[in-house]
Amino acid sequence: MAHSTFKLQPGVETIETPVLNMAGVSSCQLIRYKPDSHGQGGLIEKLGGWAKFWSQKMPSTVRALHAWQDLNENKWVAAGMSTQPSTTKGPLNVIACSQNSSGLTTGAQSFDVTPVYQTSNGTATFSVTAGSAVVTVSDSSVSSIQGGSTVYFTEQVAIGGIVLYGSYKVDTITGISSYQFTALTKLGAPQPALTSSTAPAVPSLATTSGSALVTVTLANHGYSAGDTFPILNSTTVGGVTFLGNYEVYAVTDANTFTLYAQTAATATTSGSINGGAIRLDYSLLAAPPPAASGFGVGGFGLGSFGTGQTVTLPGAVYSPVTDWALDNWGEDLVACGIGGAVGGIPYSPICVWSPTSGIPIAAAIPQAPTINDGFFVAMPERQVVAWGSTVTGIQDPLLIRWCDIGDYTTWIANVTNQAGQYRIPRGSRIVGAMQGPQQGLIWTDIDLWSMQYVNQPYIYSFNEIGTGCGLLARKGMAALNGVIYWIGPSNFYKLAGGGVEPIECPIWDNVFQNIDKANLDHVRTAANSMFSEITWYYPPVGGNGEATNYVKYHTELGTWDYGTLDRSAWFDQSVVGPPIGASSTYGYIYQHEIATDADGQPMVSWFTSGMFAVSDADQKLFIDEVWPDMKWGYYGGQQAATIQLTFYARDFPQQTPVTYGPFTVTAASTYFVPRIRARLLQVGVQSSDVGTWWRIGGMRYRAAPDGRY
Fold first, then answer.
1. How confident is the model over 465-480, as a mean pLDDT?
2. Which end of the chain has the smaller Cβ count within 10 Å, N or C?
3. Is the pLDDT of residue 615 over 50?
4. How many other C-beta atoms can be found within 10 angstroms of the C-beta atom of residue 381?
5. How many CB atoms lie within 10 A of CB 195?
6. 23-37, 67-81, 86-100: least confident range
7. Are strands 658-665 and 580-582 parallel, antiparallel or unpaired?
8. How many CB atoms lie within 10 A of CB 372?
9. CA-to-CA distance for 439 and 464, rounded, in angstroms?
10. Which tens digits make up the pLDDT trace of 316-328?
11. Measuring CA to CA, how many Å separate 280 from each of 150, 180, 372, 437, 439?
């Protein structure tokens, strides 16, 4: 009887039929491909396992992870989570790390550094002095404000010949419920009051029945025809609801101007924005906690070791968020809660937390945009680049803004700095952005743009480098070895030296015919530089909206595989070691590639081949002997894997197969006798034991003709 070798072709193929995919893999779960040094493609092996990075369950679903090290060489992992329905809290936690007995970096202590906010509506009083830019505020609804906090005026307030609007940094605390800040011009310079006053006023809107023309009264407004007048507080006057950006149609005098509403008014009347009440939103900067004793006192522990830190501020609220953008500015964590709002008004500022300052919570950067869809830190210039940002307080989905070099408190451009902004001219919105090799990359829903530093006077040049290759989801891209990979609306792409290239995907059906389009922002792209892999976790149709399925691309081999595994956040190999990922199902943060199992539980890894035509004529083949050929464990470790081999025999593709097995084989198995009669044959390989690993080689089988079918 003749002997033949059963050698699988590299890659999983689901577009082809099982017969067309002869010697390939048609279905799989938790496997990967390893390059074959003989140039014969890839070898299939069990996926690396994972274990808890931090022993505690996270309070809600982790949407973003980031690892960094501070100036004291302490290692940290930030975890941004989505809103908890019961508390409307979207927490931001940082985990202080230590080294375990095995030399691995693990989580040791967790701190809640979530930014907190407070809204005051009509309770504040103001005073300004002629010739001074200092504004004094007394607000009985705020008792926990600290110097460095942010006060956000959500409507224009005229007082003493100046107009206050936007965010201001609290400079001085003058009492239990009073403080001072500096009024600023549009260019960020101090703006002295023209007269002393304690009588602030918000804009008044006057409508005429049957007309869309609206007269706005705001003392010394400073607007010109063509300027944008924003209204953040929804206000109804004359049957018209005002909300959003409005173009100034004409200026009557220093105190009045006109604009057009979207519809004609139904009454001749007048009314003030927000009913005349002055609304203030505070981003609170909490005071450092009182001195503590015990191990861990100082920047690393922020208190006694192991206790964590929770800050409670009277009247504080949390902004409900759906996602987070995280990065570090040196040793400081920079964070932005995506989709946030305070008191019904969108508010997603860029916040900073320092591990060595002793300040227990992150707080908004007062000078930064108040609404953003995300950001990244541009290198090597070190500038925070915000996208889906704003100038007026109303979000512009195509706007990019960036701060000055090395200074995230300067965002208003002038000749003495390198802050600036740019609006992408094509597409309907920016979907995602990241720092790539030597350039920033901006994806809209339809194309890809580069953002390259060119110094003064333009700071950055913007060029469209790909069309028809937009991004499907906010976190649908990742970088690996200088190449950028991403998922588009109907294909996968990469950006390398030759420009944008589509990636052929033999498991296209599994993704694009099965992705839940209502939850695209839960897509996560996971780079694993240890194994040259890019994985896209995505929510399937009919699932729970979370990313529970995955497709994986081996960037060296060009092979794909797929399976089910939920990951709601991911960070590649970093200062804390191998990649870390978060599970939406179990609520834990895991470190990958450090174990053979699924957090101590069996990892069920398997694959099924395509249909081999073991006989091309009208003869059946009889197989009476199979020699397993495997790596049964890690190099230098126990060769203890237990594998189940199952064979599915048919004469025609549509027939119900005859199953032979499963046959259990180990390193001690020289051969086994399956006694198979077939023309078409599929092979299934599976393992479910604990503490083991395997890689398949070239199994041999003995066969002979066995009559006509």
1. 96
2. N
3. yes
4. 16
5. 13
6. 86-100
7. unpaired
8. 24
9. 13
10. 788 889 999 999 9
11. 10, 14, 19, 41, 38
CA 362 and chain centroid, separation: 18
- Statement to judge: residues 170 and 216 lie in one domain: no
- Look up residue 45 and give its two tokens: 């092996």
Q: Residue 699 corresponds to which amino acid? A: M
Report yes or no: 479 and 494 within 8 Å, Cβ to Cβ. no
Identify whether the C-beta of residue 315 lies closer than 8 Å to the C-beta of residue 142. Answer: yes
The single residue listed with the structure tokens 């495997």 is: 630
Contact indicator for 492, 502 with CB cutoff of 8 Å: yes
Task: Identify the DSSP state of 191.
Answer: -
Cβ neighbour number for residue 210 with a 10 Å cutoff: 10
CA dihedral 140, 288, 92, 50 (to 10 degrees): -160
Any idea which residue has 């067309």 for tokens? 20
Structural domain contains residue 695: yes
Give the whole-angstrom CA distance, residue 128 versus residue 118. Answer: 24
What are 208's two structure tokens? 């005429």
Rounded distance between C-alpha atoms, residue 78 and residue 75, angstroms: 10
Decide: 536 and 1 in contact? Cβ < 8 Å: no
Which positions ≥6 away from 337 have C-beta within 8 Å? 80, 90, 92, 115, 319, 321, 323, 324, 348, 351
Nearest Cα neighbor of 677 from 619, 627, 621 is 621
For the chain, give the percent of residues with pLDDT over 90: 77
d(CA 369, CA 462): 21
Distance of CA 399 to the CA centre of its chain: 19
Residue type, 17: T
Contact 393, 230 (CB under 8 A): yes
CA 480 to CA 223: how far, in whole Å? 48
In this structure, the answer to whether residues 634 and 685 fall within a common structural domain is yes
Paired tokens of 313: 């501020």
N- to C-terminal Cα distance for the chain? 19
CA distances from 573 to 17, 78, 536 (A): 37, 15, 17
Helix (H, G, I), strand (E, B) or coil at 522: helix
Helix (H) or strand (E) holding 270: strand 269-272
Q: Which of 276, 295, 330 is the last residue of a domain?
A: 276
Same-domain status, 638 and 704: yes
How many Å apart are CA 78 and CA 353, to the nearest integer? 10
For 96, residues 6+ apart whose C-beta sits below 8 A from its C-beta are: 74, 75, 76, 107, 108, 109, 110, 111, 300, 301
pTM, two decimals, is: 0.93
Quick one: pLDDT band at residue 306, thresholds 50, 70, 90? very low
Q: Give me the pLDDT at residue 309, please.
A: 55
**More reliable by pLDDT, 498 or 406:** 406
How many whole angstroms separate alpha carbon 49 and alpha carbon 67? 20
Running DSSP on this structure, what letter comes out for residue 512? H
Alpha-carbon torsion (597, 600, 602, 603), positive or negative = negative
SS3 category, 514:
coil
Give the CA count within 13 Å in the CB-facing half-sphere of 300. 17
Instruction: Record the tokens describing residue 231, joined without a space.
Output: 């209204």
| Token duo for residue 95 | 């985990």
Q: Does a structural domain hold residue 346?
A: no
Domain span at residue 236 reads 204-276
Residues 266, 209: one domain? Answer: yes
Q: How many domains are there within the chain?
A: 3
